[in-house]
Amino acid sequence: MRPLGAQAELLRVLGHPVRLQILEELTKGVKCVSDLEEFLEIPQSNVSQHLSLLRRYGLIDYYMDGRLRCYYLVDPIIPDLLHVLKRDYPEQLPPPACCPVTKKGRYPGKRRH
Predict the structure, then answer these.
(1) What architecture is the 4-86 domain classified under in CATH?
(2) DSSP assignment, residue 91?
(3) Element (H, E) at 56
């Protein structure tokens, strides 16, 4: 289990649209920087900065194929998180039966006075 601080850090690292796109592409298989640059339509230096951050946090890694760096996913939580983020929820959660502040409704726990 990831410590709470590591969970928060993971969410912070994922909190950029380009990094989410990179991770989504890597769920489909290995990609080199030029593949990602073409797909994302951003400069190679920008792609490399995002890849470096994702690698520093252990989400991805790479191997060398000649002069190419081929990136792939390492952290098994990434496909699950991406799946949850894309999921469509038809409605919101129901409201609580009461409010602990106004004391209206039935509060399921013990009230503090």
Answers:
(1) Orthogonal Bundle (1.10)
(2) S
(3) helix 44-56
- Which of the 8 DSSP states describes residue 107? -
Find how far residue 44's CA is from the centre of its chain. Answer: 22
Q: What is the pTM of this model?
A: 0.82
CA-to-CA distance for 42 and 6, rounded, in angstroms?
Answer: 29
Q: How far apart are CA 56 and CA 50, in angstroms?
A: 10
At 52, list the tokens: 């470096």
Q: Answer for the pair 54, 13: CB distance below 8 angstroms, yes or no.
A: yes
Two tokens, residue 36: 């990602």
pLDDT digits (tens, 9 = 90+) for 13-64: 999 999 999 999 999 999 999 999 999 999 999 999 999 999 999 999 999 9
Rounded Cα distance between 109 and 17, Å, is 40
Query: Which one-letter DSSP state was computed for residue 15?
Result: -
